[in-house]
Design brief:
- By secondary structure, the protein is an alpha+beta fold.
- Helix content is 23%, strand content 37%.
- Strand 6 and strand 7 form a beta hairpin.
- It is elongated.
- The chain binds zinc ion (2 copies).
Length: 164
């Protein structure tokens, strides 16, 4: 995964539009994260006299089993980032840094880092997933079961006693 910016760096242009389809070449990483290998990298690189910065976004697809309803799902995730493009990494900087070597940026590690930072903590088909009913196993996203209505809550029993 190389981003070639040699021409841009030596030109008089002050900005470069980026729109690249990248593929993650790390089976272990893909298995661990349940990702599709294709990552779309878009954004713009800006050049001033003092620095070069990248204002970008990555988009990728998570294909996993929902932790709540156990259904297989695919979810598109996107995350924005700002990075400094540098010749040599500055260890004291807190910014994301992309190091240019021979006019190219090796993107592998940065993309993986951005993915780790943006992956949802829990694999859910949808943030509002209602899950499955613990009593009858029905997927509550598709159906409404009778279980909850028939269950008596002990707190209400006490209330009923008080009302008697
Ligand atoms: Zn779900
Ligand atoms: Zn139920």
């Amino acid at each position: 995964m190389m981003l070639k910016i040699k021409k841009f760096l030596s030109s008089d242009d002050v900005s470069l539009i980026v729109n690249e389809n990248l593929a993650i070449d790390d089976e272990e990483f893909l298995e661990e994260t349940h990702l599709d290998k294709n990552v779309l990298l878009t954004g713009e690189i800006f050049k001033t006299d003092d620095n070069v910065t990248f204002s970008g976004k990555i988009e990728y697809t998570l294909a996993d089993e929902c932790a709540r309803c156990l259904k297989e799902f695919e979810r598109r995730i996107e995350t924005k980032f700002q990075a400094d493009i540098v010749q040599k990494e500055d260890m004291e900087s807190d910014e994301i840094q992309m190091v240019v070597t021979d006019g190219m940026i090796r993107m592998d590690e940065i993309i993986k880092q951005l993915i780790y930072l943006s992956l949802p903590m829990k694999s859910l088909c949808n943030d509002d997933c209602k899950g499955i009913c613990p009593y009858c196993g029905v997927n509550l996203n598709n159906e409404i079961c009778q279980c909850e209505r028939n269950l008596t809550d002990p707190r209400f029993d006490k209330l009923k006693d008080l009302l008697k």
